[in-house]
UniProtKB/TrEMBL annotation:
<dbReference type="GO" id="GO:0015833">
    <property type="term" value="P:peptide transport"/>
</dbReference>
<dbReference type="Pfam" id="PF00496">
    <property type="entry name" value="SBP_bac_5"/>
</dbReference>
<dbReference type="GO" id="GO:1904680">
    <property type="term" value="F:peptide transmembrane transporter activity"/>
</dbReference>
<protein>
    <submittedName>
        <fullName>Peptide/nickel transport system substrate-binding protein</fullName>
    </submittedName>
</protein>
<dbReference type="InterPro" id="IPR000914">
    <property type="entry name" value="SBP_5_dom"/>
</dbReference>
<dbReference type="GO" id="GO:0030288">
    <property type="term" value="C:outer membrane-bounded periplasmic space"/>
</dbReference>
<dbReference type="GO" id="GO:0043190">
    <property type="term" value="C:ATP-binding cassette (ABC) transporter complex"/>
</dbReference>
<comment type="similarity">
    <text>Belongs to the bacterial solute-binding protein 5 family.</text>
</comment>
<feature type="domain" description="Solute-binding protein family 5">
    <location>
        <begin position="68"/>
        <end position="430"/>
    </location>
</feature>
<keyword id="KW-0732">Signal</keyword>
<dbReference type="InterPro" id="IPR030678">
    <property type="entry name" value="Peptide/Ni-bd"/>
</dbReference>
<feature type="signal peptide">
    <location>
        <begin position="1"/>
        <end position="22"/>
    </location>
</feature>
<dbReference type="InterPro" id="IPR039424">
    <property type="entry name" value="SBP_5"/>
</dbReference>
Amino acid sequence: MHLKLIAATLAAMSLTAAASHAQEKPLRIALHSDVASIEPGVNRDGNSDMVLAHVVEGLVAFGDDLSVKPMLAESWTVSQDGKAYDFKLREGVAFHDGTPLTGKIVSWNFERYLDPASNFQCRGRYDGSIGPAIESVEATGEHSVRVTFSSAAPNFLITMATVQCTPWIIAPSSLDAAGKFQKPVGTGPYVFAGQEQGRYLDLTRFANYAALPGDRDGYAGNKTSSIETLRFMTVPDASTRSNGIQAGEIDVIDEVEPSLVDSLKARGLTVDITPTPATMVLQLQTRKIEDVRIRQAIAHALDLPQLTAALGGDLFHPNPSLLADGTYYYDNSAAAWPQPDLAKAKALLAEAGYDGRPISILVANRQNRVQVATIIQAMLGQAGINTTLDVRDWATQLDYYRRGDYELAVFAYSARLDPLLSFQSMIGSKDEEPTRMWESKEAEALLAKVSVLSDPQARKPIFSELNALMGKDVPILGLFNLTVVTALGADIEGYKGWPAGMHRFWGVTRK
């Protein structure tokens, strides 16, 4: 190997290099795959959201208690008719390039996200495709901005706070002279420093970060940081990740296998266990499995308590619903879904004339997901459903998902902290958006109804009705809510999980 390549490899991975001072040593975080995109809100996945949330910020964010809290907006007021939101921006906030945050820049960001050319994945939540449409965004002062809707938009703040749909505020220097995105230049506690596909992505601490007072609080709150460099390393193999952290060559790993928790703790490592609303699901492509009786048979064939017991006992909570167990809106939602019943599954298959043709299960080549798919395959086999596993890398599965090109798929959705966002992600025309799971006029009508409500008591029965209807159509089947298990090196302090299930490395230090 060429000496320069050896040097570059050693520098990039930082597995054995010793820093002269503990705080100068990069915090090495192992990810199962590259981030899907460094452009906020475009071609995103969970890794992208988590990494970029250290670089860019929105007007508001969810706190630890899952309420919407100020971030770049200091405060806001809503007009009596619910159509206009006036935001007062924080003063003294600067982008990584030194540009001050202004109302004009916020307005420019919203106009860019509303432009179809931006490919912002949640544009439909703001342009009227799903819910009320933004009619205008205008700077009303140096540090103020008004967003006006076509009709009352009671869930605007919730949508903006949801990391999957946040209109992240970036500096104009994020784009080149032709308007093409180059790199994220945000206001967050870390600066994007570079990426090498398949190996690592680096963030460096922003020395001039304008932190909020108080404590760390979800993706809002105080984001004061001390670690100089965050290095997100691409380490697809689960064994390599666990061996790496035990050898001191990796500082943080997630998706820790339940069977490893006790042994990692015994070696002096910290293990953070945080229940979340994130969910592992079995996607059923209704345009390829069109007969609802076959989809119902698949649901009856799966024993979710048995599945979760095999995976990790108490760490996973069986739940076929999109309504997260333990939340205000749950309301025993699992009872509305097909219960385990092999005899019923076989009867439905016979009624549908299922002839034993193989049905493919698409799954990413990640240890826990392949394990889930293998157990599902065995359970479906007991009902007489013939399946094959199609194991792909995560980027390929994500591409198939975006094209709707699969029959069954084991997939995970990062936490949506309000059920409205979950149902909005699922319901709609596959012609307009191939990632939609559920084409149903009745469901669309219920979704439109709940989209204009803000009172939890008024929203709850509609979410319950949507849940029951989805249990009949079975366009998707929840498996369990995900408990995020993160292991950290013995010298890492200050890490704390939260219900969104996404890492926060501000406030983290080395001993």
